[in-house]
Amino acid sequence: MTPTLDRTAATDAPILDVLAERWSTRVFDADTPIDESALAAALEAARWAPTAANTQPWRVIVARRGTSAHTRIAESLAGFNRAWAPAAGALVVFVAETERDGRPMDWALYDTGQAAAHFTVQAHADGLYTHQMGGFDRDAVRAAFGLPATLTPVTVMAVGVYGDLDEAPAELREREAAPRLRRPISESTIVDA
């Protein structure tokens, strides 16, 4: 389903349409299965994200709605995330490998974020909607999937088909319609010499 709202970002400089049009929804179609070819393409985009010295210090847990893995991830979600995210066709946990062969991998969180960002952009380009969440119990995910201490869950991403905004609860409709805001780049720039 196509969103009923125009969510295109009002940018201060021109950016690629796929970036300006990408936004994080909380309204997912709870019945339509995930598009497997679009999901595979998003995972492939993550695979080819930039990575320091080609170390690729990230992993994913891909859990489709209706599986026990999806349920375990949904149960780890905090607060309001539990109300809307389980409707997504898949929940994907991005996991950073923070240590390898006894040596810390200080860039692992950055590289994991790169992989998640590439996944998100490709998913959007192929008609999937996403929403990343930091509000989840990392220890619960670690225990549910037997992750060693060297693997750190970083974010859970809801992925799927956009739902019917008119059928969404009032709180979700209100959040969906809220203006998209970002602070000016000047407030994020430490030095611009």
TrEMBL record:
Keywords: Oxidoreductase. The keyword Chaperone does not apply. Gene3D superfamilies: NADH Oxidase. The keyword Oxidoreductase applies. InterPro entries: Nitroreductase, Nitroreductase-like. It comes from the Bacteria. Residues 20-160 form the Nitroreductase domain. It holds the Pfam family Nitroreductase. Belongs to the nitroreductase family. This is Nitroreductase family protein.
